Each structure stands twice: as C-alpha cells, then as structure tokens.
Amino acid sequence: MDSIIKTRLEKKQIEQFVKSCLPKQEIQEITEIPDGNICSVYVIQTSNRQSIASEAPIFSEHRSKMVLKVGMTADVDCLRYEKGLFPTEYKVYQLLQDQGIPIPHILKADLSGSIIPAGCLLMEFVEGTAWNKISRELERNERAQLMNGLGKCFAQISRIKGDYFGYLKDGAQHRFQTHGESFSHMIEDILADGMERGIGLPCREIETMLYKQSSLLDEIKEPRLVDFDLWAGNVFVKKQKGQAEIAGIIDFGHCFYGDAYAAFAAAVHLFEDVEKESDFIRGYECVSGETFSFTSHDRIRLDWYRLYLTLLCAVETYRYEKNLAEKVRASQLRKVERLLQKLQSVW
Asked: Considering the entire predicted model, what is its pTM?
C-alpha cells in the first residue's frame, strides 16, 4: 500500500547494507513488496543459491532470497503508538526464537540508522502464500490443519510473560502496573491522534464508557505477550498433497504486554468468532495446558480490543491517498459506532 510515512530506499543503499552483512553475495534482483503502510519491505534475490547459509549459519536452509524491512525515519508524522515501534519488532523476534513458532531468522538488525537512515532488519524469506490470498482455495481438512497449528502459535506467543503492561518500549512512560492503565493510555493516545488529524471520533462517549468499565480491564492481572497484528496477511501457508501447514508468521511491531485474548480481536480474515473454531481451540489447549473458555467479561473486553483496532484503522487513513482514505475511514467509523453501542448496551 502506498503510504507517506514509508522510508523508500535506492538500490545502492540496499546493496551497501547487504554487502555489510554478506560480503560474498551478489544481488541479482530487488523487488519492493507493496503490502503494509508503515514499513518498506524489499525481497532481495542473490545469484549464489548455496552461499547464504555458509556466510550466515543461523539460516536453517540454503536460500537465495532475503527480506529487508525498513522502519520509519525519526522525523515522520506518525501516530503516538508508532513512535519507536520498530525496535519492538526486533525484541519480539528475539523473544520468539526457539519457542516452536515458525518465524524467519534475523540475519542482521541495525536500529541505529548507521548505514540506512532508519531501523532495518535483514531476515530470511518466508516461503509460502499469505493466508488471505489462499483462503478460498483451502479444502475443509486443510483449513482444519491450519487452524490447529494457528491455535498452537497463538498459545505459544501468549505464554511469554512481561514485567509490565503496555507496548514493548523503553521508558517508564510506556510501562504500567495495571492493564486498565495501559489500555486506557492506548485509547487516549489514538483519540488524541484522531482529534489532531480532524477525524470525527466519538471521543467523549468512548472515554465515558472506558471509565465506567475500567474495573473489567483490571481483572487481567498477568501481562502476556499479545501479537496485535496476527491477521491473515501475516500468516504464510504451504500446501502439498492435501496437507497444509503454517510456513511462517511475520510482523511483530504491534506487540504489547496485556490480555492474551486481545490477540483474537486482531485476527482479521482468520476467524470471526474464536469460540466457534474447534480446531483452533484444540491447538490452543494443547500448548496452553488449560481449558479454553470465555466469560461474559472476556467478551466485553474483546469488544474493547476490537474498538481499539478499529480506531487505529480509522485514524491511520490520514496517510492514504484521498479516495481510499475517505472510503476506509467511513467504513471504520461505522464499525466504531456499532462497537460503542454494543459496549453501552451491556453496561
């Protein structure tokens, strides 16, 4: 997706960075991936199909492709939660290594901007097809296999515990002792971003309901890692002879420590209602070792997380092309109203 906040690189910059990591590699082709609206992503094809692993033993196989992901520069007009977000992705990749989750290995991380004027990650290329691009082709048994594997991945991520609630950023101002404080701060930030950009959000109504229902948020006592961007576009699938498996999960910049169930709200185009996904639940229980169940308060909190995601989607349209921005914004604002009415009806 075209976005005014992406850091676009010249071919020479990419070549210079790759050479600093893998001196023996000759770049054959560089292709920009248009998906996403925060980071620029480039697929790099090298001419030597056998030597990446010899130069980078961390790679699990001999590969001829790599991915370069580039964050925003410091002067970009981004949303409050996005400031300093890129280092979060690297932190989460480190946390998830050796956790049984199919993620790409990081070859090189440069968060200083010493070579490229923004943070960047050079990593393995994930083979497979994004779930959202293949979902209509999945047979029933293939989807069942994938949902079971997905449940295991969700549970494995949520097993990681934090020492605080909030986004994985440095600084006491980003870390909270309670889930209620942390989530309220998230909501307040996105509402402030919306107001600054002239997006008509029902701020007063949201703040009133948040105050009334804050006790529900504080029922979450243990901070768990939440991947708030684990949607179908970030899950890559492999199919072969009637079998399907998750080849890789990418993009961890939107992670925070909070309610483990919050991740379900962001699972767009994977499922609508996780409680109806029996294969997912079996996979989740297999890893968590606990019975998967929802209380009425869990369901209310889940609507709050859906509301937060919808607010993010509505406000980030400020950086889209005008016609697309108007269309997406109108759709998201209608969802905001519906979710707010639902929250008001249960309290």
From this structure: 0.93
